[in-house]
Sequence to fold (207 residues):
Amino acid sequence: MSQLFEVHPQNPQARLLKQAAALLQAGGVLAVPTDSSYALVCRLDDKTAAENLRRIRQVDDKHHLTLLCKDLSELARFARVDNRQYRLLKLGTPGPYTFILEATKEVPRRLSHPSRRTIGLRVPEHKVLQELLALFGEPLLATTLIPPGETEPLNDATEIRERFQKLLQAVVDAGACPMQPTTVIDCSGDEPVLVRQGRGELARLGL
Fold:
């Protein structure tokens, strides 16, 4: 039975977030709110947790997973970013954008795209998730919580817990999130390419 942490969306209780962070540290997969629907998250360097996360979503190794970072200072560890790319990232962070970038050796090969060595990176704007990332002290591996065989992400924490209670260690409930996924921009080539139009406006990035 997964735990349910009901937290205030603007002033989340640190005590509950510390419990959630401890479950992540122990190898758990959690459902957490973001600024573009709920997501599944786990520790970056935990192979078993990453496999469980993929199994819950029923996606293979070609499905791009995303690193949720607290701020841009963490990006250089995990992605190769030139000045042009960095300017674009600054415009879109924090916010509902995922940037696909060339992965560094810090990213385990099993987590990057198998043929391209790329990784999705994102700095979320959601207050609860920002606090959880700060408490956890390192980026989290994430994927949008879209149930297998469905096309829309889940937005209700109670429903998430009911449907995935045997697969998730906990659900962090901060109320409903926007139902739109992130806008995905592939920055791994010479020019940025729109992969998916989501909640993030292209105009904000000057594209």
Observations:
- The first strand starts at residue 3 and ends at 6.
- The mean pLDDT is 91.
- The domain at 3-205 is CATH 3.90.870.10 (DHBP synthase).
